[in-house]
Write a structure and sequence with these properties.
about 230 residues; alpha/beta; four-stranded parallel β-sheet; two-stranded antiparallel ribbon; about 10% helix
């Protein structure tokens, strides 16, 4: 996002929320020298249009984002632990390195969105000191539609995708819990995953029509948790 540019949905927000978002953007642009980090813990953001907002590094722990529009929003390294995103519309957003543990995405529409690791670089700006994964442990995606998303390297332990529709997603090197249950096809022929685990995902690939109903996941990419 260019400095000083207003996000697409920002004009529909309350003056107080716009002020918080602008101060946060300034905080990011100046490496914390000016502005202020967005502290939106337990904040009521239901049905808000947050299209294109820059909230990387913000704290939205427990925030209520039910029905919100988060298209092209950026939440890199943000805290959304326990946040409620039920029924949210999320397209081309970025949650790289974010903490989404115990977050609820039930019935959300999620497309072309990234949940990948973020590289932590040294003071020289070039040396990679560590990779910080997106952490979704215990999150819930029941009856969500998830299309074209990347969960590469994400922590997905104890995540529930029960009755979710997963299409053309990338789970390479994702950290998954040990197998607990095999998937079953629902009445619409989609794959209902009772848990995010290697056996369920691989079994789904072998079902008729799985190429349009679930993610294409190479066997070498699945890692069991110790």
């Amino acid at each position: 996002m260019k400095r000083g540019r207003r996000a697409d949905g920002e004009g529909t927000l309350s003056p107080d929320l716009r002020k918080v978002i602008r101060a946060h953007r300034l905080w990011l642009d100046t490496d914390g020298r000016r502005g202020a980090r967005a502290e939106l813990q337990d904040h009521d953001l239901r049905d808000q249009d947050l299209t294109g907002v820059e909230l990387s590094g913000a704290d939205l722990t427990g925030a209520d984002l039910r029905g919100a529009r988060l298209d092209r929003a950026r939440f890199r390294l943000a805290r959304l632990r326990g946040a409620h995103l039920d029924g949210a519309t999320i397209r081309a957003a970025c949650f790289d390195g974010a903490d989404l543990g115990l977050a609820v995405f039930d019935r959300a529409q999620i497309a072309d969105t990234r949940f990948e690791p973020i590289q932590i670089v040294g003071d020289d700006g070039g040396t990679v000191r560590a990779e910080w994964p997106a952490r979704l442990g215990g999150a819930r995606f029941r009856r969500a539609r998830i299309t074209g998303c990347s969960f590469r390297g994400a922590d997905l332990q104890n995540v529930s995708f029960k009755s979710a529709e997963i299409v053309d997603c990338d789970f390479e090197n994702a950290r998954l819990q040990p197998p607990k249950a095999a998937p079953a096809a629902n009445q619409n022929g989609k794959i209902g995953l009772s848990a995010c685990d290697p056996r369920a995902l691989h079994a789904a690939l072998g079902l008729s029509g799985a190429d349009r109903a679930t993610a294409a996941i190479p066997s070498a990419s699945i890692q069991h948790s110790p």
